[in-house]
Every structure is written in C-alpha cells, then in structure tokens.
Amino acid sequence: MGNRNLLKRVNALGYPLLEAEESQNVDLTLADMARSGDLRLWEGFPVVLANSAEKGLFNYNKAGDYLKKPADKVSLVSLITMSLGLYKFFNLELSWAANFYKSLAKNKKKEFKVYLSNLKSDADLNVAGRKMSSQRLKTVFKNYFNKQPEKLNEMLAVRDEMSLDYSLLQVFSPKQKELFLKKLKREKMTKTEREYFSRVVKKKVLALANLELNSLARRLLE
Questions:
Q1: Judging by DSSP bridges, how do beta strands 125-127 and 130-132 pair with one another?
Q2: What is the pTM for the complete model shown?
Q3: Domain locations along the chain
C-alpha cells in the first residue's frame, strides 16, 4: 500500500481538516501511520488519534494486532505516548488519555515525562529512534485546532468537566455531589433530599464559600 492511499485515509480521519467517519478503519489507519515511518504522518498522528479516540473509534489492542514487526509495535506505542505528552502540554486532560496513561509500563511513563519536558523546552524528541521537532509537532497540532476551534472547545469542556467532577468528589460523597448539582441547577428535590442538603451539604458549601478559609487554603498550596 502506497503512502498516497494512506494520506487519503488520514485526511478522512481528521488530519489536516476533515471529520472522522465510522466507516473508516481507525485502528488500521493508525497502525499504518506508525508503520509508515513517514515523519509528515507521524506529526499528524496526535490529531488523528485525538479525533478518533474522542469518538470512541480507537482500540489500541486491535491497532497493535495489525502490526507484526516488533519495531512497528514500538513505533505505535511511542507515538501514542508522545501524543499523550502533547495533550498534556496543551492541558488537554482527556478521559481516555488519562486511562491509557495508567496502563503504560514504567519505562513508557518515563518516556512520557521526557517527551513532556522536551516539548516544554522546544528540544527535539526521540520517537522510536526517529528525531522529531517539538516545535513542528506543537505547530501542526495548534494550527489544526486554530482551523477547527469548536473541536478544541469541546476538548477543553471535557477537561473542565473532569476537573470539576474530581474536585467535587474530594469534598462531597457521590450522593452529596448529586444534591449539590441538583441545587445548583434548581432541580426539584424530595423532602428527604432537601432535609439532608440543609443538614449536611449546606454546611460544607458554607465552608467552601468562606473567604478566609479559601485564602488559607491557597497559601498552603503556594
């Protein structure tokens, strides 16, 4: 299969401009991108991966099954790890990306940290033995989302929602969080829920709203 055909398939999966379609074999396309060794395609890998994974179309195990050579499998996981570092650099903490990071082996988590550090310092990356420019990777990714701002806004919304949900669960139990959000959205509550909110949840809310306590908490984090 020539790279011209692969480029057409990549275009259909979101790099550089078009939308992903379920009719596309995402796993095979990403596997072929990894196997190609073409740096142009590798630079677009994070865009295609983000577009596909956000739609639930990417399966790492299936993509790996398309690759028979150990070197190609290494390229695939290194490209995904590099992509995770790029998302982190842009503060796109996506749920699927966080879950994939947890599954990485220790050496790949170290590799992720090196990628992130190099992205921050504009140093070249070593991805599966190939030198890639940090600046070019960031430019390609940023330019794509500059042309597709609604996609970046969607990802940022997911990130913010995850951050809020995590913070709420540090303070409230799941049931208390549910009542907190119900009250916030002015949704109807049962008598029991109203009483529990007033007796328990409201006290925590008042504590959170206390400006002096908030100031002290911020000082502790400095």
A1: antiparallel
A2: 0.60
A3: 3-149, 172-222
